[in-house]
Specification:
By secondary structure, the chain is an alpha/beta fold. Helices cover about 30% and strands about 30% of the residues. The protein has helices at about 15-20, 40-50, 70-75, 95-100, 105-120, 130-135, 145-160, 180, 240-245, 260, 280-295, 315-320, 340-350, 360-370, 375-390, and strands spanning about 10, 25, 30-35, 60-65, 90-95, 125, 165-170, 185-195, 195-205, 215-220, 225-230, 250, 265, 270-275, 300-305, 325-330, 355-360, 395-400, 410, 420-430, 435-445, 455-460, 460-465, 490, 490-494. The chain has a 9-stranded mixed sheet, sandwiched between helices. Strands 16-15-17-18-14-20-21-22-23 form a 9-stranded mixed sheet, sandwiched between helices. Strands 19-25-24 form a 3-stranded antiparallel sheet, with no helix packed on it. Helix 12 (about 315-320) links the parallel strand 15 and strand 16. Helix 5 packs parallel to helix 7 (about 145-160). The longest helix is centred in the first third of the chain and has 15 residues, at about 105-120.
Length: about 500
């Protein structure tokens, strides 16, 4: 017979938080939410409280700040999670400001005990517990014993079967404080301003009885409250098995003759990088890819990070967006994290049951990422590609590259190995005119063309023509400037 105690886990109501907690918040746990001023402690606490509190499982929110609860509620009611009907029914506010200013910890504890015994809450919040600590330090009261106070409070809350949250303004997790030892859970919020970007991160430093997701996790405070963005789980495709299995379904690209260059189309579930200089038609190719999908009954998602007006989109793509056949994520703010973008993409993929995804472009994407997240951009990009392709979608990404004519890097991040297929676009000079050429650099586990193809852009989109030196009359029977074919060296085409 098993004597193992089952710990019930509470759903916090905060998107992404349950995942990094390891499945939810342990019931009857004694927790500390810590961090500097303005990082979102009170908002996080209220969001959990309004999600968990019911008339059968009420909550008490103790305020020990100098401001009255009404002032705090004035700001909290701006969030969508706020339920005015729950106040004074499922949720009760108690102001401990006068007791705290007296500096007597025994009196503060007595008041908390009285309220809890009277109303029997299932959830207890104390904001800010740091104020209680500071008040006890500024009064010469021989009866004040902070370690004893913390231990008694924790034991009482556990005895009453209440899940407790203490909110405190702490700047250094290494500070010696008895509450760090007594607490069952320690949720640390951080924030910093880097190059005019506000970056907020959350860390579960401690949660007894369950494995948590380690590391710092980006979060954002919006009109719906706090949203946490844990790294998405990934499944890496097994290309060895794919090569020996039945041929995968090939997707048409929507550009005449490009499917033949790819060996019959782009294999479903692949990731494709389209790299080229400004004006080479990368976005047009990406739009054609989504439009072709719509013609075949497929929905798509497009994430745009380029600084360009909407009227430059094709009429066909604009109509697909209006018809909700293509979901649009248009983010041009400069404080994103890659995990946040991935979560938005996955949400749209799930909503539309999309099978085609476009990111236009990685260059603009990098600029939209907050500086704090750019140090591991390559690693995060790898995680993003794996997470998206593991859902079964086919991914097309564009990348802006400088055309130096003599050599061309087809991935500015050294990440060409992350993608399954690569198409390079570039310019050449022929008889004092710029011409566009295109080549398929790789299609993993598939034969493909190695030809350099000329192409043009007109009202019909991209038009691919003959091989570079086979177009009649282009060079007058002799090359005016010979351009070598593509040879792969690392991430370069020379």
């Amino acid at each position: 017979m098993s004597t193992k105690v089952t710990i019930n886990r509470l759903a916090t109501g905060v998107p992404g938080l349950d995942e990094i907690l390891g499945g939810g918040l342990p019931e009857f746990s004694f927790n500390l939410i810590a961090g500097p001023p303005g990082c979102g402690k009170t908002t996080l606490a209220h969001q959990m409280m309004f999600s968990l509190a019911t008339p059968e499982r009420p909550a008490i929110f103790f305020t020990v700040l100098g401001e009255p609860p009404l002032k705090m509620l004035r700001y909290q009611q701006q969030f969508s999670f706020f339920d005015e009907e729950a106040v004074n029914t499922s949720i009760r506010y108690v102001n401990l400001a006068d007791d705290t200013l007296a500096g007597d910890l025994e009196e503060v504890l007595r008041r908390i005990v009285h309220e809890v015994e009277t109303h029997a809450p299932a959830l207890v919040f104390v904001d800010s517990f740091r104020s209680v600590v500071l008040a006890s330090e500024t009064h010469a009261n021989p009866n004040n014993n902070l370690p004893q106070f913390v231990q008694q409070l924790g034991m009482l809350m556990t005895t009453w079967q209440a899940t407790t949250f203490l909110l405190g303004e702490y700047f250094n997790e290494l500070d010696s404080n008895p509450i760090f030892t007594v607490a069952d859970g320690l949720i640390w919020l951080r924030q910093s301003v880097q190059r005019n970007s506000m970056v907020r991160k959350m860390e579960i430093m401690k949660m007894r009885g369950q494995p948590t997701l380690p590391g710092l996790h980006a979060f954002r405070i919006g009109e719906n409250g706090v949203t946490v963005f844990p790294p998405p789980s990934t499944v890496v495709p097994n290309y060895a098995e794919m090569a020996h299995s039945a041929l995968p379904h090939r997707l048409r690209m929507g550009v005449p003759r490009l499917d033949d260059m790819l060996g019959g189309g782009l294999p479903q579930g692949y990731s494709l990088l389209v790299a080229g200089p400004s004006g080479s038609g990368k976005s047009l190719l990406a739009a054609a890819f989504l439009e072709e999908g719509a013609r075949n009954g497929e929905t798509g998602v497009m994430a745009v990070f380029e600084q360009r007006p909407n009227h430059l989109r094709s009429a066909a793509l604009t109509q697909l967006i209006r018809n909700d056949q293509v979901g649009m994520i248009d983010r041009r703010v400069a404080d994103l994290s890659i995990d946040e973008v991935v979560h938005q993409l996955l949400s749209e993929i799930h909503r539309l049951k999309a099978t085609r995804v476009v990111i236009d472009s990685l260059s603009g994407f990098e600029l939209a990422i907050a500086p704090a997240f750019r140090d591991d951009f390559r690693e995060s990009l790898s995680r993003m590609v794996s997470a998206l392709t593991s859902t079964g979608v086919t991914l097309l990404m564009t990348s802006e590259l400088e055309d130096r004519y003599t050599d061309l890097r087809f991935s500015p991040y050294g990440t060409a190995f992350l993608t399954d297929a690569i198409i390079v676009q570039r310019y050449i000079e022929v008889d004092s005119r710029l011409q566009r050429i295109m080549a398929v650099v790789k299609v993993r586990a598939s034969a493909h063309s190695d030809e350099l193809r000329l192409y043009s852009i007109n009202d019909q989109g991209l038009q691919i023509s003959d091989r570079l030196y086979e177009q009649e009359g282009l060079l007058g029977g002799r090359p005016s400037r010979r351009v070598s074919g593509p040879t792969q060296h690392g991430d370069q085409l020379t």
